[in-house]
């Protein structure tokens, strides 16, 4: 068996085109476009690259974007002041604070300062609580991107047995909730580093989602023939043949698992592009909700 490649890059392009059409329609109807603000503290190269990619994606979709850069020594009060100003800015519909912050100890307080109506990253406790209850809410972009890949690829979800490896608040936990909600109706097992005999669970699964942050977490002997495998991981693996000295790899032993699975996402080009696409869609939805409430 040779797995069908689930092309997240192509799906994300379709999503961005849909978002651009929605933005154009909103502009024609109201004369305004959605606005997204990104707060970047410090000069971490990976964070800066990701923020730049978001800015380009916003421009292509017609979304107004604003980047607020603060130096790494920025105090808690300075960051909170920026967030509060953006909460009050009517031109901004979505706010994203790029993580990690130089001072990880203040991340929770900063995220909780964001107006839940503008929390397009879906990290505010108010949105998390509403998501758990099955109410309309912004959910973290990567889990929603995974769900969108499964839906757009025609993967049956109702009644499916799904194993999610990884229990982070950014991916694993919210994804397990989204997959088990009414209307999706998957049966979900959430596994993690303390799970005994992980392969016992993965071999019984119709769908395996791996978000462990460790290469080769899922190997071919852990997957049943015909399973669907979603690889969320992005790891730098040493590679002397590359000018950079490394290559990007996921959490799945791709070649071996692809020979056994029915469908699989690649790394790069799988889940990653969907994250930004879902952020743009959330920003448009935030604009609709906020402006609809004022109408």
Would you kindly provide a written description of the structure presented here, covering whatever features stand out?
It is globular, with a radius of gyration of 19 Å. With 295 residues, it is of the alpha/beta class. The chain has two domains: 31-119, Rossmann fold (3-Layer(aba) Sandwich), CATH 3.40.50; 141-273, 3-Layer(aba) Sandwich (Rossmann fold), CATH 3.40.50. The protein has ten helices and eleven strands. It starts with a strand and ends with a helix. The protein has helices spanning 8-30, 45-61, 76-88, 107-112, 125-132, 141-152, 172-180, 198-202, 254-258, 272-294, and strands spanning 4-5, 35-41, 64-70, 94-97, 161-165, 187-191, 207-210, 228-231, 235-238, 246-249, 263-264.
Q: Which SSEs are present, and which pair or pack?
A:
Layout: E1 4-5, H1 8-30, E2 35-41, H2 45-61, E3 64-70, H3 76-88, E4 94-97, H4 107-112, H5 125-132, H6 141-152, E5 161-165, H7 172-180, E6 187-191, H8 198-202, E7 207-210, E8 228-231, E9 235-238, E10 246-249, H9 254-258, E11 263-264, H10 272-294
Parallel strand pairs: 1-11, 2-3, 2-4, 5-6, 5-7, 7-8, 8-11
Antiparallel strand pairs: 9-10
Biggest sheet architecture? 6 strands, parallel
In angstroms, what is the radius of gyration?
A: 19 Å
Please list the strands of the largest sheet in the order they lie side by side.
1-11-8-7-5-6
Gross morphology: globular
Mean of pLDDT:
95
Distance between the termini: 55 Å
Please report the number of helical segments: 10
Q: Please report which band the strand proportion falls in: under 5%, 5-15%, 15-25%, 25-35%, 35-45% or over 45%.
A: 15-25%
The H/E string reads: EHEHEHEHHHEHEHEEEEHEH
Assigned CATH superfamily of the largest domain: NAD(P)-binding Rossmann-like Domain
CATH overall fold name of the largest domain: Rossmann fold
Weakly predicted, low-confidence segments: none
Q: Which structural category fits the helices and strands?
A: alpha/beta
CATH architecture of the largest domain: 3-Layer(aba) Sandwich
Helix share of residues? 40-55%
Strand runs, count: 11
CATH class of the largest domain: Alpha Beta
